[in-house]
Amino acid sequence: MDWDALRISLQVAVTSTILATLVGVPFAWWLARASFPGRGVVSALVLAPMVLPPTVLGYYLLQAVGRRSAIGGLLDSVFDFSFVFDWTGAVLAAFVVSTPFLVRTAQAGFESVDSVYEEAARTLGRSEISVFLHVALPLARRSVLAGVALALARALGEFGATLMVAGNLPGRTQTMSIAIYDAMLAGRTSDARVLAITLTFVSVGLLVAIGAGASASSWRQRS
Amino acid sequence: MSLSVDIRLRAGGFSLDAAFQTGDGATAILGASGAGKTLTLRSIAGLQAPVDGKILLDGVSLFNSTERVNLPVRRRNVGYLFQDYALFPHLTVAENIAFGISRRTKAQQRESVSRMVDLLRLHGLEERRPAGLSGGERQRVALGRALAPHPDLLLLDEPFSALDAPSRESLVEEFIALREAIDVPTVLVTHDVAEAYALAEHLVIMGNGRVLQSGPKAVVFHQPVSPSVARLVGVQNIFNDVRDGRPVVVGVRASNMVVGSEGEPNATLDQTVDRGVQLLGRFTTDRGVQVVAELHRSRFADLVPGSRRRVEAREGTALVWPASPGA
């Protein structure tokens, strides 16, 4: 029983969630506030990964970044880099699968905050970045943190798309979820049990930590 | 200061076409709800982009559709008091006030905040959050927040409508005093004629997305150009009549209706309406016109419905407009 799988799982899930937060939260704000024709279509497209089976997503990702694809070929020839059979591939898979959960939750949070606060900040001379960081984000903080927690949980549990893109290389791309499957397949049921219980505790522990962070940073809402 | 507005815009099914200029001091945009007052104010602040037209503040173009100028909100240096104040709920009173001056040094910010706290009597509330403030306190914090960056123009959207009557009256007086301390050109939006008259030197009367009349308040108040303006500046009696053989519309304030005990009675009292400070009588004249007249409490306290009295407009106070078709 070695603990590489736990290390890889955490590394992949945390990296993917950081990326999802950096990209997804500003994007969710933009989606919540923008008004343009086709906004509904964009909103729906963002959610597509939530309804597609992970293996189908994995298949498309492989088509997109595999060595024989345009992007994959370019990355390979210029940087000698490939997502395929690499832990970064697992990050890519987790990112694509988990970001919609974050965007959806955060977008609902931003939409529930009256945009008048953001207008007030603009009349007080603040730039859009400042409006986002100092007004929109703190006011939608609970939903944003809930979205981050969901994305992290989803990334930790990612299986199908990860297996398709990064494969199952112990010590390199084998995450906890895949290691459990691998152990069961090989008849190492006690290993599978230990891994499953560990993943349960890690997931719940991370969510509790984020929940604690959310309530510590909360303030009394206007009555 | 001079603010010149000439804009057109559409929002939903509503179309706004507003043009007016203001002089020194405060200007009140007065109109019923849905007249386009707030939309006009938002356009001046840059929160709403007109389809075309121009907005000039002291010769500087804030918006000009032909020259493709549309200064972003943050560069207009305009203070805006929102109807529900929009104080940041996650920040303290002091942080709210300092929000628009974050580029200054900490020392300058502290000085500015304490000046606003003095001016607006917010002592002891600096560390509170908006949730722990009364309506009047919130309004003053919002005002301090808008004034701290020294705006070129202060815009107030229904500044007193969220308050109850007692705090409202004292705040209006306080606000007049404040305007003497801080000399900033102001445009305010209100549906209350008394508020507009007390706070502003100029009136812009709006109805249905159009400017019906604008000018010095005494002119607009005493010489409304049309019956609809008259109604908005508080002329209660507006009825059709015939003068010199021509159909006209006549307007008379209730305070200019004289109810006499002598003379041939020409009207019957329907009911008296006691407004506390004011006693009003609703009469129907023998020609079938309903009029409202202010009654002297000492002389008419015992007047009962059905009483016959002579009711006429005080000499020279009737406003007369030519009858327009459909008016």
Brief overview:
The complex is a heterodimer of chains A (223) and B (327). Chain A is mostly helical.
Folded structure, characterized:
The complex is a heterodimer of chains A (223) and B (327). With 223 residues, chain A is mainly α. Chain A has one domain: MetI-like fold. Helix content of chain A is 78%, strand content 0%. In chain A, helix 8 packs antiparallel against helix 11. The C terminus of chain A is likely disordered. Chain B is of the alpha+beta class and 327 residues long. Chain B folds into 2 domains: 227 residues, P-loop containing nucleotide triphosphate hydrolases (Rossmann fold); 88 residues, OB fold (Dihydrolipoamide Acetyltransferase, E2P) (Beta Barrel), CATH 2.40.50. Chain B has a 6-stranded mixed beta sheet, sandwiched between helices. Chain B is globular and about 75 Å long. The interface between A and B is medium-sized, with 22 and 28 residues.
